[in-house]
Amino acid sequence: MKKILIVGAGGQIGSELTYHLRKIYGASNVVASDIRRTPGITDDGPFEVLDVLEAQRLAFLVHKYNIDTIFNLVALLSATGEKNPIGAWRINMGALMNTLEVATSFGCSVFTPSSIGAFGPNSPKDKTPQDTVMRPTTMYGVCKVSGELLGDYYHQRFGLDTRSVRFPGIISNVTLPGGGTTDYAVEIFYEAIKNKRFTCPVPENSYMDMMYMPDALNACVQLMEADPSKLKHRNSFNIASMSFTPEIIYKAIKKRMPEFEMTYDIDPVKAAIADSWPNMLDDTCAREEWGWAPKWDLESMTDDMLKIIGQKYKDGLLK
Ligand code: VAH
Predict the structure, then answer these.
(1) Which of 92, 139, 182 for a ligand 1 pocket mutation test, highest count of atoms within 8 Å of Cβ?
(2) How many Å lie between the centroid of ligand 1 and the Cα of residue 229?
(3) In angstroms, what is the span from residue 1 Cα to ligand 1's centroid?
(4) Is the peptide bond before 33 cis (omega within 30 degrees of 0)?
(5) From the CA of 180, how far away is ligand 1's center (Å)?
(6) Neighbours of 4 (CB within 10 A)
(7) Distance CA 220, CA 230 (A)
(8) Closest CA to 86 of 140, 147, 135
(9) Measured in angstroms, how far is the CA atom of residue 22 from the centroid of ligand 1?
(10) What is the pTM of this model?
(11) Exposed e or buried b for every residue in 263-294, given b needs 16+ CB within 10 A?
(12) For 93, phi and psi rounded to 5 degrees?
């Protein structure tokens, strides 16, 4: 990777991936783009306003910056997708199709994340295999499975270098997620510090795969830098690091903040989505084919999140 374009750079992953890639490859070699100017990421490197549904502008930017790798992070997430399924399909698949077509024209490599949301209630729940039945019951999941199939098709049919990981819920402390079923696992930290209480929308025994952002960012780079001859899979790799329920994360925080209290006000849409997803993925293929090895677990992530978010409130960066 030498000249990178991030599409959807203003989101939860994109905002941190931009900084991460700029540290590795040099700020001028990583072009951030999003549908509107995003404070922060426009500061220390090239930024372009891009509605990725406009294929001609995407092609113009790929040509202008001589891009060789595109990270397509544009997605309406699971819960939002259920409120606007047509919009989710149009945006998620429109962004991907334009990315694949432009990348094929210019010979770029493409990274488009998939998700644990690509699995459904008929997929094995525990140690979910890399290759298994995938019948998701959300529009987000349908988009993710379709995206995986399209990524492999463009690789097999046109020789495009497409790669992808099935992200779990990602926990981070820079940009809040929006519209996801796993967002509670981020919001709980902010509420614990700010209000010492949290009302959880997901049932107490809903296991879901989760991952701390630093591991997610490393996965993006490691996979895209991997030796293609070693890849038996491409779209998309199971990756896993931790799996927990709301009760488990509540107890981890309470151990550190005894005054923290949590109640439940279940969101039926999020409950149904969480119930349809796996408990924990089997990530053996990612470990064997490109050396995936997460560094963060529940305890270390909880310590780091409370420390960083607590400091932001102390410094007045959060209200
Ligand atoms: C969501 N955060 O909840 C996203 C993610 C695995 C979950 O895809 O929709």
Answers:
(1) 182
(2) 30
(3) 27
(4) no
(5) 5
(6) 26
(7) 16
(8) 140
(9) 25
(10) 0.96
(11) eeeebeebbebbbbbbbbbbbebbbebbebeb
(12) -80, -30
Catalytic residue status for 140: yes
- Ligand 1 atom 7 nearest Cα: 169
Burial class of residue 261 (count of CB atoms within 10 Å of its CB; 0-12, 13-18, 19+): middle
Written as tens digits, the pLDDT of the chain (319 aa) is 789 999 999 999 999 999 999 999 999 999 999 999 877 776 789 999 999 999 999 999 999 999 999 999 999 999 999 999 999 999 999 999 999 999 999 999 999 999 999 999 999 999 999 999 999 999 999 999 999 999 999 999 999 999 999 999 999 999 888 899 999 999 999 999 999 999 999 999 999 999 999 999 999 999 999 999 999 999 999 999 999 999 999 999 999 999 999 999 999 999 999 999 999 999 999 999 999 999 999 999 999 999 999 999 999 999 8
Catalytic residue among 19, 25, 65, 140: 140
DSSP-assigned beta bridge partners for residue 237: 165
Residue list, ligand 1 pocket, CB within 6 Å: 77-78, 115-117, 140, 167-169, 177, 180-182
